[in-house]
Specification:
This protein is α/β, with parallel strands linked by helices. The protein is built from 15 helices and 14 strands. The strands form five sheets. It has a four-stranded parallel β-sheet with strand order 8-12-13-14. Strands 6-3-7 form a three-stranded antiparallel β-sheet, with no helix packed on it. α6 packs across α7, α11 runs parallel beside α14 and α13 packs antiparallel against α14.
């Protein structure tokens, strides 16, 4: 898909908010005024009924009803979200982009559903939102934590890009929940809470990825949802928790498969701290495919157009020397394509295709033919081998540190396959 075609599709289908995953008409959005006196004047002008809705008791802060509801809170409660910057809604008589109090232009654009920011360039680039899915215990949190760190450091240097958090909250969440515990304290991350247990989990971490080569910068939005594996147990649960919205509107999906959860591999590998076998990943991927078909009204005979990257995680445990003949059946030998590095600074299609063919056959043999057939429901798909930590933790401690293995490969492929970056 080239950039012109992507832009045309973005205009035809509207802007997808990467926070709430609603499709937004950019002609009908909300704004925020930077004039600090407008909030006071707005609150003084309210009728008693509107004052109950927007007043929090302070003369310089108004209640942000939409963002409060998005976060699962009560707009009339003590934990309602407030703001000192007046919000301009699309009410009758209001001119889009003009403050209804001071009548000056307002440049901060807000999603009308959740009141999170809409970046400049949204009309041209739309939103490129990738989601990361997989069963419980597959290592999604570790993958997301290490991937973000790799994208911000080595990836941006390699491909001439910059990466920045969209909001202060994203910066704080990544630092306090992921980076500090994993990289500074050397400890495994805590299990991800279900959407049912934590309403805060419904808000993704959002980053802007900017490629600065060429005549003008290109900006793409990356949304990282750390979903709990149990939230993907069934289509009914996915629909009930409204996870279907961000799955069906994603620009690309990274589906993680833990080899140690596969019985054929688990029963043969010799290692310390071996986990138990996990969920049926074939059923889970089928659930994801069915949700996409239902939400996007795709017939069973037609292919799903959302690109799918299937990533075999914890691959470091599969690269050791075999201890017996049974273990040799599930390990990658010295002639494996996994030992061949990709060419730096470009999209190494040949390397990715070699690895994809090997991992596909590996999973067909070790997991099931049904799984690889389900993957083929996606028109564009590719297989990868990654390791977030690079070694098996001892208890909760990462005694050997963190040595990631090719965690960025699925994203390099997705960026190319969706037409957002072409380094060929």
């Amino acid at each position: 898909m080239n950039t012109a075609k992507k832009n045309q599709e973005s205009q035809e289908h509207g802007y997808i908010c990467p926070f709430c995953f609603n499709k937004i008409d950019l002609n009908n959005i909300h704004y925020q005024c930077t004039n600090p006196s407008c909030t006071k004047q707005f609150l003084r002008s309210l009728s008693p009924a509107d004052a109950k809705k927007y007043s929090c008791g302070k003369d310089d802060e108004e209640i942000d009803v939409e963002n409060t509801i998005f976060l699962g809170r009560d707009p009339l409660g003590s934990d309602a979200v407030t703001t000192k910057h007046h919000i301009i809604r699309d009410a009758p008589g209001n001119t889009p982009g003009i403050c209804d109090i001071c009548h000056r232009p307002a440049y901060k654009r807000l999603c009308p559903v959740c009141h999170n920011p809409i970046p400049q360039g949204a009309e041209e680039e739309g939103s490129t939102v990738f989601v990361i899915l997989g069963p419980k215990g597959v290592g999604k949190s570790h993958y997301i934590a290490v991937l973000i760190n790799q994208l911000r450091s080595s990836f941006t240097q390699e491909f001439g890009a910059t990466m920045s958090a969209a909001t202060d909250k994203t910066t704080l969440v990544y630092r306090d929940v992921y980076f500090k515990r994993l990289f500074e304290e050397g400890r495994k991350l805590s299990p991800t809470m279900s959407f049912e247990e934590s309403k805060e989990a419904r808000e993704p971490m959002i980053y802007y990825l900017r490629f600065i080569e060429g005549n003008r910068p290109r900006v793409y939005t990356l949304a990282f949802f750390d979903t709990a594996g149990e939230d993907l147990d069934s289509t009914t649960k996915i629909m009930g928790l409204n996870i279907n919205s961000f799955i069906s509107r994603a620009s690309g999906i990274v589906f993680l498969v833990d080899p140690l959860q596969i019985p054929y591999i688990n029963n043969r590998i010799r290692m310390d701290n071996k986990p138990a076998c996990g969920q049926n990943v074939t059923e889970m991927l089928a659930n994801v495919a069915n949700i996409i078909r239902t939400n996007n009204k795709i017939k069973m005979k037609d292919k799903i157009q959302i690109p799918l990257a299937v990533a075999l995680t914890k691959t470091d445990v599969l690269l050791k020397s075999p201890e017996n003949e049974e273990e040799a059946k599930i390990l990658f030998g010295i002639n494996s394509a996994l030992h061949i590095d990709r060419e730096r600074g470009k999209y190494d299609r040949s390397n990715f295709e070699q690895i994809s063919a090997e991992i596909e056959e590996y999973l067909r043999r070790a997991l099931s033919n049904e799984f690889t057939q389900t993957v083929k429901e996606f028109q564009h798909h590719c297989y990868f081998a990654v390791s977030s930590l690079g070694s098996n933790p001892v208890g909760s401690k990462l005694s050997r540190g963190i040595s990631p293995m090719r965690v960025e490969d699925p994203f390099i492929w997705l960026l190319n396959d969706t037409g957002t970056e072409d380094k060929q």
